[in-house]
Design brief:
single chain; 84 residues; alpha+beta; 3-stranded antiparallel beta sheet; 35% helix; 18% strand; elongated
Protein backbone atom coordinates (compact mmCIF):
# COMPACT_ATOMS: atom_id res chain seq x y z
CA UNK A 1 0.00 0.00 0.00
CA UNK A 2 1.20 3.53 -0.72
CA UNK A 3 2.48 5.65 2.13
CA UNK A 4 0.64 8.99 2.45
CA UNK A 5 2.08 12.13 4.05
CA UNK A 6 1.63 15.86 3.64
CA UNK A 7 4.35 18.43 3.08
CA UNK A 8 4.31 22.20 2.95
CA UNK A 9 3.87 23.79 -0.44
CA UNK A 10 7.33 25.36 -0.14
CA UNK A 11 8.93 21.92 0.40
CA UNK A 12 7.13 20.23 -2.51
CA UNK A 13 8.97 20.03 -5.82
CA UNK A 14 7.65 22.14 -8.68
CA UNK A 15 5.64 20.29 -11.35
CA UNK A 16 7.69 19.42 -14.39
CA UNK A 17 6.80 21.10 -17.66
CA UNK A 18 5.74 19.05 -20.63
CA UNK A 19 8.46 18.28 -23.08
CA UNK A 20 8.23 19.79 -26.54
CA UNK A 21 7.62 16.37 -28.07
CA UNK A 22 4.70 15.60 -25.75
CA UNK A 23 3.14 19.03 -26.25
CA UNK A 24 3.45 18.62 -30.03
CA UNK A 25 1.71 15.24 -29.90
CA UNK A 26 -1.08 16.71 -27.75
CA UNK A 27 -1.58 19.55 -30.27
CA UNK A 28 -1.58 17.05 -33.13
CA UNK A 29 -4.44 15.05 -31.61
CA UNK A 30 -6.35 18.20 -30.64
CA UNK A 31 -6.11 19.19 -34.32
CA UNK A 32 -7.58 15.84 -35.35
CA UNK A 33 -10.47 16.35 -32.91
CA UNK A 34 -11.21 19.86 -34.17
CA UNK A 35 -11.04 18.74 -37.82
CA UNK A 36 -14.03 16.38 -37.60
CA UNK A 37 -17.33 18.23 -38.19
CA UNK A 38 -20.73 16.97 -37.04
CA UNK A 39 -21.97 14.16 -39.24
CA UNK A 40 -18.44 13.05 -40.21
CA UNK A 41 -16.18 10.33 -38.84
CA UNK A 42 -12.44 10.67 -38.33
CA UNK A 43 -10.18 7.76 -39.25
CA UNK A 44 -6.64 7.13 -38.03
CA UNK A 45 -4.48 4.24 -39.19
CA UNK A 46 -1.70 3.42 -36.72
CA UNK A 47 1.85 3.70 -38.01
CA UNK A 48 4.61 1.29 -37.04
CA UNK A 49 5.06 1.22 -33.28
CA UNK A 50 1.59 2.60 -32.50
CA UNK A 51 -1.41 0.65 -31.27
CA UNK A 52 -5.06 1.33 -32.06
CA UNK A 53 -5.81 1.42 -28.33
CA UNK A 54 -3.16 4.08 -27.73
CA UNK A 55 -4.52 6.22 -30.55
CA UNK A 56 -8.08 5.88 -29.26
CA UNK A 57 -6.94 6.94 -25.78
CA UNK A 58 -5.12 10.00 -27.17
CA UNK A 59 -8.21 11.01 -29.16
CA UNK A 60 -10.37 10.74 -26.04
CA UNK A 61 -7.93 12.79 -23.97
CA UNK A 62 -7.62 15.45 -26.67
CA UNK A 63 -11.41 15.72 -26.85
CA UNK A 64 -11.65 16.21 -23.08
CA UNK A 65 -8.94 18.90 -23.16
CA UNK A 66 -11.03 20.79 -25.74
CA UNK A 67 -14.30 20.29 -23.81
CA UNK A 68 -15.73 17.84 -26.34
CA UNK A 69 -16.86 14.23 -26.23
CA UNK A 70 -15.32 11.57 -28.45
CA UNK A 71 -16.78 8.22 -29.41
CA UNK A 72 -14.03 5.90 -30.64
CA UNK A 73 -14.06 2.40 -32.05
CA UNK A 74 -11.53 0.11 -33.70
CA UNK A 75 -12.22 -2.04 -36.76
CA UNK A 76 -9.43 -4.14 -38.29
CA UNK A 77 -6.71 -2.10 -36.57
CA UNK A 78 -8.07 1.28 -37.75
CA UNK A 79 -9.39 3.83 -35.27
CA UNK A 80 -12.63 5.64 -36.11
CA UNK A 81 -14.07 8.47 -34.04
CA UNK A 82 -16.89 10.99 -33.89
CA UNK A 83 -16.89 14.22 -31.91
CA UNK A 84 -19.86 15.82 -30.15
Amino acid sequence: MAEFTTVSEADAPRPSRQTGRLAARMREYEKYVSSVPNGKVGRLVPSKGETPRGIALRIGRAARRTNKMANTWVVDGTVYFTIS
